[in-house]
Write a structure and sequence with these properties.
Length: 227
């Protein structure tokens, strides 16, 4: 018995190390091959489908917002301004204004101000830039824009911020939070600044005085009055 045990030990010791390594590699290859033959799990298929759906919704939304880049602001068009700004031109500078203006008041949420600026005219991608001179009542204008924002919420869903966009738009419309009050003022300031620039350029056919006088006595914040 002792001889057999010793012989086994000797035989084991005599097996070359590369053989053991080869056997281990073969076992690993066999395991990986078995795993490769397994069909993809349902969770993987479901994840891919969700990614495709998310991408499709995002593209639909971004395609919708193209109109903000191509639609000229109605007030300037009506006053004969040559090559007037687009809706998105106005929204972008307002976003920058909201960023720097909110820094001057530590009580304001800068990120929220920027989001409000990005969202405040988003509905105009569908309804256009409706002014008080377009013959549309405030009630009808609000209803049309609300319908568009609800469509956007459905389009994006909660996972891509649809709910938040609708809530931000409603916050701006109500104008009750400190951030929304500031954005209401900045909306007017950006308009006045643009009017001054058009007058300096001489790129208008009719008077732009109404863009200055329409803001008198309508400031809601100290920043608005100071600027």
């Amino acid at each position: 018995l002792i001889f057999i045990l010793d012989a086994t030990a000797i035989a084991t010791a005599l097996v070359p190390l590369p053989l053991f390594s080869f056997l281990n590699m073969a076992d690993k290859f066999r395991l990986s091959s078995d795993a490769a033959e397994d069909p993809p799990s349902s969770s993987t298929d479901e994840s891919a489908a969700n990614n495709n759906d998310t991408a499709s919704r995002a593209i639909d939304f971004l395609t919708l917002t193209r109109a903000l880049k191509t639609t000229k602001r109605t007030g300037w068009v009506m006053r004969g301004v040559h090559e007037p700004e687009s809706i998105s031109d106005h929204m972008y500078r307002m976003s920058l204004m909201s960023m720097i203006a909110s820094f001057s008041n530590g009580a304001l949420d800068t990120n929220r101000c920027i989001k409000l600026a990005l969202i405040h005219d988003l509905a105009e991608a569908t309804v256009g830039d409706i002014t008080p001179h377009c013959g549309v009542s405030d009630r009808d204008k609000h209803a049309m824009e609300l319908e568009t924002m609800e469509r956007i919420r459905t389009m994006l869903g909660p996972m891509m911020g649809g709910d938040e966009m609708l809530a931000l738009w409603k916050e701006y419309e109500s104008g009750t939070t400190e951030e929304a009050k500031l954005l209401k003022d900045l909306d007017k300031i950006e308009m006045i600044l643009q009017a001054q620039e058009y007058e300096a350029e001489g790129s208008h056919e009719q008077s732009l005085d109404q863009f200055f006088t329409s803001t008198e006595g309508k400031w809601r914040t100290e920043i608005g009055r100071a600027w």
